[in-house]
């Protein structure tokens, strides 16, 4: 499971003057805040009325992502950054409010493979018919509705415009958040495959994308696994990749162009590169031990070379002087030893870039 913080939008749907929605939303956020902190969740309250979305006014179908209006682009950015949604909705005439339907219709890709939970409120049905109506729509958008819900019957739970503290309601809200977190983590690989800049990888079901500082935990684990063989082959533990802290890895991920190869949410391999003068320096080329022998290291090396700055005239990399498998790979790809560039205990290799 990923260790990244989850960003959850708490959407308050009703914008009717005097609506109970803001009070329910405030109760929900306050009730969930301690549990959210324990689970690594950032709760972001948002009233749909504050978005000032007119009825859908985009010329292109939302699936095209060609948004013409600033209010659409703003809403797209907010929804895209979220990992899941909690919707606070009333029931209007056995259905969800038009504000929610309109907000859903504006976007397409931004919804895919994210969990959505519902907190409904009303009289006879406690708003549950609005939730059933909304579930028909959200599944079409590839949102994943949770089984856990919170249904607030106004006559039983509301007094003087506020939701009364109630153990049963709080327990239902906590259960819904717990389920959302589990589903959001499980769906993350599917979400990542949909993001701009993500490309198919060399293995069936794999994909590649640039790594960011938020990937430091996964990179830490991969490095510790991969550089044990390097340490054994060279009879030294003085291998930086074995000792870097997650914070140190976050720091260099912010400055290096690093490509990560993923499948089913697991980081299988990576390679980093950056320009130094006329040289394109490559490094941290690694593949998870159980995935070796499938050509992934060679594929990552070529991908790193293909991303070279056009101003660079050669690629430069280094490895342990006794790392014969690494050296054989690099030489088969056209690299040649450059002893004058090497440091103690390392072999430096270079290759002209056409």
From TrEMBL:
Domain (N-acetyltransferase): residue spans on this chain: 206-354
Top-level taxon of the source organism: Bacteria
UniProt keyword Transferase, yes or no: yes
One Pfam family named in its UniProt record: Acetyltransf_1
EC category: transferase
Listed CDD domains: NAT_SF
Keyword Oxidoreductase appears in the UniProt entry: no
InterPro entries given in the database record: Acyl_CoA_acyltransferase (IPR016181), Flavoprotein-like_sf (IPR029039), FMN_Rdtase-like_dom (IPR005025), GNAT_dom (IPR000182), NAD(P)H-dep_reductase (IPR050712)
EC number: 2.3.1.-
GO cellular component, one term: cytosol
Coiled coil region boundaries: none
UniProtKB keywords: Acyltransferase, Transferase
Any GO molecular function: oxidoreductase activity
Protein name as catalogued: GNAT family N-acetyltransferase
Organism: Streptomyces sp. Y1
Upper lineage: Bacteria, Bacillati, Actinomycetota, Actinomycetes, Kitasatosporales
């Amino acid at each position: 499971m990923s260790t990244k913080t989850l960003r959850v939008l708490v959407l308050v749907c009703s914008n009717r003057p005097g609506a109970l929605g803001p009070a329910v939303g405030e109760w929900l956020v306050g009730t969930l805040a301690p549990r959210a902190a324990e689970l690594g969740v950032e709760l972001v309250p948002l009233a749909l009325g504050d978005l000032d979305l007119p009825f859908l006014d985009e010329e292109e179908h939302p699936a095209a992502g060609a948004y013409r209006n600033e209010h659409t682009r703003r809403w797209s950015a907010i929804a895209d950054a979220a990992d899941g949604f909690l919707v606070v909705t009333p029931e209007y005439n056995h259905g969800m409010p038009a504000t929610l339907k309109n907000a859903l219709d504006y976007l397409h890709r931004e919804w895919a493979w994210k969990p959505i939970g519902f907190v409904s409120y009303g009289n006879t049905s406690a708003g549950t018919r609005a939730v059933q109506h909304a579930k028909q729509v959200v599944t079409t958008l590839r949102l994943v509705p949770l089984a856990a819900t919170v249904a607030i019957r106004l006559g039983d739970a509301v007094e003087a415009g506020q939701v009364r503290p109630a153990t049963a309601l709080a327990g239902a809200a906590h259960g819904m958040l717990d389920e959302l977190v589990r589903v959001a983590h499980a769906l993350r690989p599917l979400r990542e495959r949909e993001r701009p800049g993500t490309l198919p990888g060399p293995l069936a079901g794999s994909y590649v994308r640039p790594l960011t500082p938020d990937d430091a935990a996964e990179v830490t684990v991969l490095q510790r696994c991969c550089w044990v063989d390097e340490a054994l082959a060279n009879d030294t533990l003085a291998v930086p990749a074995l000792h870097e802290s997650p914070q140190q890895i976050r720091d260099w991920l912010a400055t290096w162009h690093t490509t990560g190869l993923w499948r089913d949410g697991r980081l299988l391999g990576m390679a980093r590169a950056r320009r130094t003068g006329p040289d394109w320096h490559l490094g941290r080329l690694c593949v998870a031990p159980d995935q070796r022998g499938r050509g992934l290291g060679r594929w990552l090396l070529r991908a790193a070379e293909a991303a070279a700055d056009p101003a660079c005239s050669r690629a430069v990399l280094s490895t342990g002087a006794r790392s014969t498998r690494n050296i054989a790979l690099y030489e088969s790809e056209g690299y040649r030893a450059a002893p004058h560039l090497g440091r103690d205990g390392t072999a430096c290799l270079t290759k002209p870039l056409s």
